[in-house]
Amino acid sequence: MSFYEKVKDFNGFNFNNFFNSITEEKIEHILVKDRVNEEDFLSLLSPKAEKYLEEMAQIAHDISINNFGRAILLYTPMYLSNYCVNKCLYCGYNVENGIRRKKLALGEVEVEAKAIYEMGYRHILILTGESRKHSPISYIKDCVKILKKYFSSIAIEIYPLEEDEYRELICSGVDSLTLYQEVYDEDTYKSVHVAGAKSNYKYRLDAPERAAKAKIHSLSIGALLGLEDWRKEAFFTGLHGKYIEKNYPDIELTLSTPRIRPHAGSFEYVREVTDKNIVQAMLAYKIFIHRAGINITTRERAEFRDNLLPLGVTKMSASVSTEVGGHSNNEKGDKQFEIDDSRNLEDIKFAIKAKGYHHIFKDWEPI
Ligand code: SF4
C-alpha cells in the first residue's frame, strides 16, 4: 500500500459536512487528550477550532520544548539551475515564462558554496528547476562532491527520483530531501500542472516514500498553501507525515507551510490563506505529530516568522536568494518567487535570541 491509497479513502468525503458537525465540546475534549487521532486532527483544522488557538498554542509549545528544546536550525538554499520543463501555473520557473535561465558551472558552485560557508551555514538545501536534461543526476552528484567540502548536511529539492537514484545520491553525500506535493487534491493538481513530467500526481506523491526506502536521513514535506482549500491540504499533509512516521520511524520528519508568493507569470486562482490559517495548520501539525519539526521559510514576513517561533518552529531559512548564483554571482539567473523576510543573518539571529531561543547551524553530520 502507498500513501496514494490513503488519499483515495477520502474520495467523496464531505469535508464541509464534517466541519459543520464539530462542536466546541468536541474541541475541548480533544485538547485534553495526550494523543490525537486522524479525526481529532481534522477537527483541529476546522473553523470551530479557531476559537481555541491560544490553548492549541500552549499545547504545541509544550510539545515542541519537550521534543526539540529551544534550538532553531538555520539553513539557506542554493539555486543551482532555473531550467525547468514543467508548466506549473503558479511558478516563475514555468518553461513558458521568458525569464533569464542559468545553470551554475561547477566552478561557480564552489564560489557560491564558499560564500555561504563563510556566512556560518553548515546545512545547505540545493535546488534546481525540474529538468533531467539540464540538471541530470550526474550534475547533482558533481555539485554534491564540491558541497561536501563545506557543509555537514546537504538537502536536495529537485525533480522526483526513482528509489535507486535516491540511493545513488545518498551514497554521494545527500542526507535530506525536501519535496512538496504542492497540492494533494488530485483534480486541482492536474489543473495546475498542465504538462511535463510533474503532471504525474502519483509519481510525485510516492517520491518521499521512495527516498525513505533508500534510507534518506531526513524528509521535508508540505502543500503549497493557496492552491486549494488550506484545511483539506493541511489535513493531507499531516496524514502524509503520519504515514511516513509510522512506516519509517527512523526518518527525521519536517512539515512545512509554504504559502504561494508573487512570481513571474500570472496565476489568478489563489485561494486565500491568512496568517491565522497558517498558525492553525502549524499548531494542528504539532499536536498530531509530536516529533515532526516545523519549517518556516522567508516566504513569510519577518514579524510573523518571529511570532511563530514559540509555536513549534524548529527550522528557518535565512539569507535567502531564489536567484541562481544569488549569493555570489554577478550574472544571476532570474528568481523563482519573491521572498518576504529579507533580513540579514545577524538580524535573524538577534530576533531568535530575543524570543528566548538560540540558533544552531548544525545538528547532523554523516558518519
Ligand atoms: S514548481 Fe518546480 S516544476 Fe513547477 S515550474 Fe516551478 S520549478 Fe518547475
TrEMBL record:
Its cofactor is [4Fe-4S] cluster. The keyword Chaperone does not apply. Residues 256-359 form the Biotin and thiamin synthesis-associated domain. Its EC number is 4.1.99.19. It comes from Anaeromonas frigoriresistens. InterPro entries: Aldolase_TIM, BATS_dom, rSAM, rSAM_sf, ThiH, ThiH/NoCL/HydG-like. One of its GO terms (molecular function) is iron ion binding. This is 2-iminoacetate synthase ThiH. Keywords: 4Fe-4S, Iron, Iron-sulfur, Lyase, Metal-binding, S-adenosyl-L-methionine. Pfam families: BATS, Radical_SAM. NCBIfam families: thiH. It is an enzyme of class 4 (lyase).
